[in-house]
Amino acid sequence: MTRVALIGATGRMGTAIVRAGIADETLEIVAAVASPGSKSTGLDVGGVAGVKALGVHVLGELPPDLARAQVAIDFSRPDLSLRALNVCRAARVPIVIGTTGHGAEFEARIGSAARDIAVLVAPNTSIGVAVAQELVRIAASALPPEFDIEIRQGARTRSGRRYAGRTRWPRCKAQRRDRHCLAASRRHCGYPYSAFRRDW
Asked: 22 vs 155, 161, 165, CA distance in Å?
């Protein structure tokens, strides 16, 4: 089993990780951290997640040694996430960051920490989104420069009405050309309107 320090242990994703780890016995939660002042502080993290008691109490701060964890998983808040990154770097423990909403300094901090420890940033852990992003990367690298890519997504609400939206990804890392974005309109980036389109 992998020993895990879980930051954001009492949130929706944190409790899901606790339940998933117990279900297939792949994770051993050795440290569970919530926001300072959380009402769950001091409670057993298993009980908070609605499963059996694990003997691991929710803390308000990440211990410096991460309770001998082999990896840290963070689904918390941006400020806590950066503090966790610093603790993990000092302890030489890899970290998975699923927290969203980071500011402009985040990438620089990640780049610096990644010189010492393994850092995986996965702000969206949906398999569907990951596959869609990879498909976009492949399409963008295969199509000629004059092509523009638009992705439309649609779903039905419980009332049966169709909801439609657009997803745009920055081109900075995934694509080889220097267009600003995978844009949906000429106004946005100055490139021709959607020669490639996928309606979901």
From this structure: 33, 38, 36
Q: Are residues 85 and 155 in the same domain?
A: no
Answer with the one of 99, 121, 143 that is the final residue of a domain: 121
40-95 confidence digits (pLDDT tens): 999 999 999 999 999 999 999 999 999 999 999 999 999 899 999 999 999 999 99
Query: DSSP H helical segments within the chain, as ranges?
Result: 12-24, 45-48, 78-91, 106-113, 127-142, 186-189
Domain containing residue 56: 2-121
- Note the pLDDT tens digit of each residue in 173-191: 444 444 444 433 333 343 3
Compute the distance between CA of residue 103 and CA of residue 147 in angstroms, rounded to an integer: 31
Contact 34, 40 (CB under 8 A): yes
CATH number for 10: 3.40.50.720
- Given its phi and psi angles, is residue 188 left (phi above 0), alpha (psi -120 to 50 degrees) or beta? alpha
Amino acid at 55: G
Secondary structure percentages of the chain, helix, strand, coil, to 5: 30, 25, 45
